[in-house]
């Protein structure tokens, strides 16, 4: 059986373990190695309390992804109202690989909030099927099966890294080296 070349690097772990921090360190490592594109999900805090999340591009553009205590008719995930339109406006153009060549796509994360956008879900599937090299964070456990997460985990060209307190620093080098081996 032919071994598949890795193209999808999945990072998972408990909430708050440092998945986004790990992706940020890997991206910083890779900046001189390849072209990067994509986004991070950034926790927004006020008075030491988390009040929501923003989506932030590699270039530093920022949009509100979710906030708590919002009036209006936005979809909700837990206590957060999700700004799907803002997310799509910022994230979807980044995932269009035909617009410019990118060697590594960063997607932090594929979770319940982001998956309120069916257009996002389809864009991620297309990236993977077109063999775009991608570093993606996914939830460790979900109450309900998430189709896109299951697809990513079972994709033959993917590898899953589970982050914990013991390995999160060493994974920066391990994952960076694995990605470099996959870049043409």
From TrEMBL:
NCBIfam families: PRK13695.1
High-level lineage: Eukaryota, Metazoa, Ecdysozoa, Arthropoda, Hexapoda
Record GO terms (molecular function): ATP binding; ribonucleoside triphosphate phosphatase activity
Cross-referenced SMART domains: AAA
Record-annotated AAA+ ATPase domain positions: 5-184
Domain of life of the organism encoding this protein: Eukaryota
One Pfam family this sequence matches: NTPase_1
Keyword Ribonucleoprotein: no
Protein name as catalogued: Nucleoside-triphosphatase THEP1 isoform X1
Organism of provenance: Drosophila albomicans
Keywords for the protein's UniProt record, in alphabetical order: ATP-binding, Hydrolase, Nucleotide-binding
Protein's UniProt keywords contain Nucleotide-binding: yes
SUPFAM superfamilies assigned: P-loop containing nucleoside triphosphate hydrolases (SSF52540)
InterPro entries the UniProt entry points to: AAA+_ATPase, Nuc-triphosphatase_THEP1, P-loop_NTPase
